[in-house]
Design brief:
The chain has one domain. The protein contains 6 helices and 7 strands.
Length: about 170
Amino acid sequence: MIISESGTNFGPFDRERLFYIEESNFYKKEIHKKSRIVEFIYLNKKGTVLRLVEAKKSAPNVQNKSSEQNVKKFVHELEQKIYHTLAIYFGLVIERHKDRYSEVPEKLKNVTLNTVKIEIIIVIPKFEKEWAKDLQEFLSSELSGLKTAWHNVTIYVLNETMAKKIGLIKSS
C-alpha cells in the first residue's frame, strides 16, 4: 500500500503491518474532531519496532529566535498527535472498543507491548540534513517527558533522502 501525505508517497507497505490510523473508521467517524494523530503506524518486519510516522511540508527553524512561538506550537501539536495516536492504538489493541478491534491488522494486535520499541518519525521532504539534525535534537529534549513515560522511544526527523534510506519512501 502507498500512502500519500503532505506531497510525499510513503511505502509501499505490507497491509498486515500498517495501521493507516488517519483513514480508520474509528478515527474518521468517532473522534477526528476531538483528537490529532500522526499519519500512520507501521510495524517493522521483525515485529520489534512500532513506527509512528508524521509527514510535514515544513517546520520552524529551531535555531531562529524569532521563530520561538512557531517552534512551541509545532512541538505542542506534535506531542498531542503522538499521545493521541498511542492512546487510540493501545485502546484498540487492548479491546477498549470491541466493535473497532477488527480495524487493526493482526500483526499490530499481536505486538509484545511491554518490549516493543517506539520510533517517532517526522518526515519533512525538503528539509536540509542539518536542519533535520537540529530539530531532532531539539524534539528529543523537548519531548523527554513523553520518552520517559513510554520508555524505549526514539525520535527521528528525516528529509526525503533519509526516509528513502530506511524504506519509508520508495526510491524512484
